[in-house]
Amino acid sequence: MTSVETERAPYVGARIEPSADVAPDADLGPDVVIWHLAQIREGAVLGAGCTVGRGAYVGPGVVLGRNCKLQNYALVYEPARLGDGVFIGPAAVLTNDLFPRAVNTDGSLKSADDWSEVAVTIDTGASIGARAVCVAPVTIGAWAMVAAGAVVTRDVRPYAIVVGVPARQVGWVGEAGHPLVQEEDGWRCPATGRLYRETGNGLEPTA
């Protein structure tokens, strides 16, 4: 039996590497896997089937839905909220401070009471590429895709593909992760054949 297959109370059903640091009051669903040197802070909630890669960080009270995947060294700061099936690429960062400073104007070290957390919210199935940064407060719509290295400073519509610094939309993507191809009656996924139509807030799949 390898170390990742052992169970550490009270996380029955989760698999945790011995070098990981998991708070006793973190709520881990069944089949969660926590790899080497990852840190899961107090009150964090990880839904069933989540995987947290080597050296990744999940802040206090952060909520992950089912079957999320955080790749190596991803940093998810509180109070982020992730829906089911969200992918966070290697070394991606979800921030939480609009006006970051180490000290107050009088030179004293800032404490938790000296600033207000703001959240990154990521809806079902969305993907954040390697080394991308989502600058809170922003919402990433369902099934959207943020390109590697992008810096997201405003909300991203469902099924949108965004790239660059600051991130801008360059196309649409389907649930399978493939860019959609425009046709007369909408946008078609080349992998699944599914058709999508534009709405005021993004795309919606047809029946």
UniProtKB/TrEMBL annotation:
Keywords: Transferase. InterPro entries: Hexapep, Trans_hexapeptide_repeat, Trimer_LpxA-like_sf. One of its GO terms (molecular function) is transferase activity. Gene3D superfamilies: Hexapeptide repeat proteins. Pfam families: Hexapep_2 (PF14602). PANTHER family: ACETYLTRANSFERASE (PTHR43300), ACYL-[ACYL-CARRIER-PROTEIN]--UDP-N-ACETYLGLUCOSAMINE O-ACYLTRANSFERASE (PTHR43300:SF4). This is Hexapeptide repeat of succinyl-transferase.
